[in-house]
Design goal:
The protein is α/β, with parallel strands linked by helices. Helix content is 33%, strand content 13%. A six-stranded mixed sheet has the order 3-2-1-4-6-5, sandwiched between helices. The chain has a two-stranded antiparallel sheet with strand order 7-8. Strand 7 and strand 8 form a beta hairpin. Helix 3 crosses helix 4 and helix 4 packs across helix 7. It binds flavin-adenine dinucleotide. Flavin-adenine dinucleotide (FAD) binds next to helix 4, strand 2 and helix 6. Pathway: Cofactor biosynthesis; FAD biosynthesis; FAD from FMN: step 1/1.
Length: 263
């Protein structure tokens, strides 16, 4: 598993676990190397009534439009280790590979560290940095202040690609390309996965065998900081030994309860 050898169990590891050998799994051991081929194959083969496939297609075309409007130097992806931007990072990587096949440089990623980050999130962002060859633009503290520092320290950046979905708080008015609000540091917010559902994000991560933060396999369905995030109570169960456990995030059946572990 290369870079992932020391990391906590991911979905991909679980699929390889010995107890699962009786089932047939479409496992991709090199999902990042094969990103462009697999993503574009998915997009090219989807039918008009396939909501998931159409959402992936839409995300790819928003990213392609972004790459027409801005150079790679003018773009960074907002990456905090959450599931939405994990799916998005893979899409961005795939679209860049398709448009610039010989590109060897690093993609810029913005990571604003919260006051009390989960160590698992920190670790996952580092693993992703190495695996996707990211240049991390690292800040700490409030998002708004950090964006002010981003503008001052990296004046070439004009657009931030984000994993925001319409169901996120205060996001229902957003479009694929929306400037930040007038009282925020000015960046173009690029929102390729706005119309994705909770289930679409998990389908994408699991179908493409992408690594994701291990907290999601321990019942967390939406990640904030350590002081305001818990496993989702809807995923709780008691095992045969009477031990309280949590099912993985992708098993959550009611997507409206995604943030039930956050306060
Ligand atoms: C670039 C940017 C521009 C913003 N502009 C505005 C604005 O104009 N007006 C306003 O009211 N609020 C703005 N916000 C705040 C935003 O609306 C959310 O409040 C914030 O993203 C946290 O939401 P969440 O907890 O739901 O996180 P998420 O659902 O995880 O956030 C959605 C997406 O934002 C990005 N993101 C979130 N947190 C981070 C982080 N710590 N480091 C890097 N990327 C991150 C990721 O791409 C993530 O997928 C902005 C945030 C960012 C990162």
């Amino acid at each position: 598993m290369g870079v992932y050898e020391n990391c906590e169990q991911t979905y991909s590891d679980k699929e390889l676990a010995p107890q699962h050998t009786e089932s047939i799994v479409n496992y991709d051991s090199q999902p990042i190397v094969n990103a462009a081929d697999r993503v574009y194959k998915l997009v090219e083969s989807c039918s008009s009534d396939d909501v998931y496939g159409n959402n992936v297609q839409k995300a790819v075309s928003v990213l392609e439009e972004c790459l027409q409007k801005y150079s790679l130097d003018e773009i960074c992806i907002g990456f905090n280790g959450g599931k939405d931007c994990t799916a998005l990072l893979h899409l961005y990587h795939a679209v860049v590979k398709r448009k610039y096949p010989g590109h060897q440089g690093k993609l810029k990623a913005l990571y604003i560290k919260s006051k009390l980050p989960f160590p698992e999130v920190e670790k996952f962002t580092q693993i992703s940095r190495d695996k996707y060859h990211l240049e991390m633009l690292h800040f700490e503290g409030r998002i708004k202040d950090s964006l002010g520092q981003l503008k001052a320290n990296h004046p070439s950046i004009k657009a931030v690609i984000m994993g925001t979905r319409l169901t996120d708080p205060y996001s229902s008015h957003l479009e694929a390309f929306s400037m930040t609000d007038a009282d925020w540091p000015q960046f173009m917010r690029v929102n390729p996965v706005l119309h994705w559902s909770y289930g679409h994000v998990w389908k994408f991560l699991r179908d493409l065998c992408l690594p994701y933060c291990s907290l999601y396999d321990r019942g967390y369905t939406s990640l904030g900081s350590m002081n305001n995030t818990h496993p989702n109570p809807l995923l709780q169960y008691v095992d045969e030994h009477g031990v309280l456990k949590y099912r993985p995030a992708y098993t959550l059946s009611d997507p409206t309860k995604e943030r039930d572990g956050r306060n």
